[in-house]
Write a structure and sequence with these properties.
This protein is α/β, with parallel strands linked by helices. It has two domains: 95 residues, STAS domain (Transcription Regulator spoIIAA, 2-Layer Sandwich), CATH 3.30.750; 232 residues, no CATH class. 68% of the residues lie in helices and 8% in strands. Strands 1, 2, 3, 4, 5 and 6 form a six-stranded mixed sheet that branches. The mean pLDDT is 85.
Length: 373
């Protein structure tokens, strides 16, 4: 039995046989509207399992015609009837391939990367995004720090003094109070153990050496990192977000030299003095603990201290203060320059600068401890 479509103005028709659908002429949007309903109605009660769609007489086809054929194939497949195309010219086949819809659905889930793969990937990202940039930034800052010593005429007047006031002088109260408390706690924790062995007098050696060579510089660095390091990062990050750094470059000023170098000078000048104050007040805390809990008078404490202090311990503390001060300023400035746009980026860079500065100070303390051991 054969059913044929009526003729159109463009001489297009399609006919259905028992196992064949023949499409001829121009199969376009103008005359393909009834194709799918007629075909489904014809094969509704048929027992055909394989149907051939003959395109050998097809002269022209558009996207609507191609879509109709593919839609019919899908509907027939739902009824368990297989269909395939045959006889299409190269031109017709090329046009139909443009609308080929894949029925393949990926069955395998994407494999989750292993822990070691993710660790390696994150490490690579850390190295590429931060360490390389940090080394480049620190190198440029080192160059301008040395060069600015010999180019005093181009330096901003009062910039170094202002930074020394902000980083150093304004930090004196918190540094001295915290150093006193740390010295007091250190002596208190040691007093109970020394008393058990009858070695009360050695609290002097323990307190003095610990404060001069280790605790004094470390306490000062941590306080300055939390106080001044965060302020430096926030200041530079805000300048970048508000395009002030771009304005400096436009006017011919190097942002690192103009903004960061005075902070380095201010830190290098004031950190040794802050460390010295921390040492003094930490030792005073030790004197208080020794007097209250071990009955060691201040006179005995000072007499014992004169024999416990070595020049090496003092120099070790001073060297550490220079290194720690530089680390705090460099780290805070670096994360300030790396800020993303927006207020959220300013807060993020500030947090990162404090955490990184304290971590680097501890690492530097380990390295310097091994060197001066």
């Amino acid at each position: 039995m054969r059913v044929a479509s009526p003729q159109t103005s463009q001489d297009s028709k399609f006919s259905f046989d028992d196992n064949t659908i023949t499409i001829s002429g121009y199969f376009t949007i103008r005359n393909c509207g009834s194709f799918v309903p007629d075909a489904l109605a014809y094969f509704h009660n048929k027992a055909a399992e394989n149907i051939r769609i003959d395109l050998s007489k097809l002269q022209q086809i558009d996207s609507a015609g191609s879509t109709s054929i593919y839609y019919l194939q899908r509907e027939l497949a739902k009824k368990g009837i297989n269909s395939h195309l045959s006889g299409a010219s190269a031109e017709i086949e090329a046009k139909m391939k443009l609308l080929t819809i894949s029925d393949e659905v990926p069955t395998e889930a994407k494999e989750k990367p292993s822990f070691f793969f993710r660790a390696g990937e994150n490490t690579h990202a850390l190295v590429s995004n931060y360490i390389k940039k940090f080394i480049s930034f620190a190198s440029e800052l080192f160059y301008w720090t040395i060069a600015d010593i010999f180019k005093t005429k181009q330096r901003r007047r009062g910039a170094v003094a202002n930074q020394a006031l902000i980083i150093g002088v304004n930090a004196v109260p918190i540094v001295t109070v915290m150093a006193f408390i740390i010295g007091l706690v250190l002596a208190l924790q040691s007093a109970s153990q020394l008393r058990n062995f009858g070695a009360n007098i050695f609290i002097v050696d323990l307190t003095v050496i610990a404060m001069l060579a280790e605790m004094g510089p470390l306490i000062t660095a941590v306080i300055v990192a939390g106080r001044s390091g965060s302020a430096i990062a926030a200041e530079i990050a805000t300048m970048k977000v508000t395009n002030e750094l771009d304005a400096l470059q436009t006017m011919g000023f190097n942002p690192i030299r103009f903004v960061v170098v005075p902070k380095i000078y201010g830190s290098l000048i004031t950190m040794p003095f802050l460390t010295t104050l921390a040492n003094v007040f930490g030792i005073i805390g030790g004197i208080v603990a020794a007097y209250l809990y071990l009955d060691i008078s201040p006179e005995i404490f000072f007499h014992r201290m004169s024999g416990a202090i070595y020049q090496k311990d003092i120099l070790t503390g001073l060297v550490k203060s220079f290194v720690y001060g530089s680390i705090v300023v460099v780290t805070g400035s670096f994360f300030g320059f790396q800020v993303d746009k927006g207020a959220e980026g300013v807060g993020k860079s500030t947090t990162q600068s404090v955490v990184a500065a304290i971590a680097l100070v501890i690492v530097a303390d380990l390295v310097l401890g091994l060197i001066f051991y």
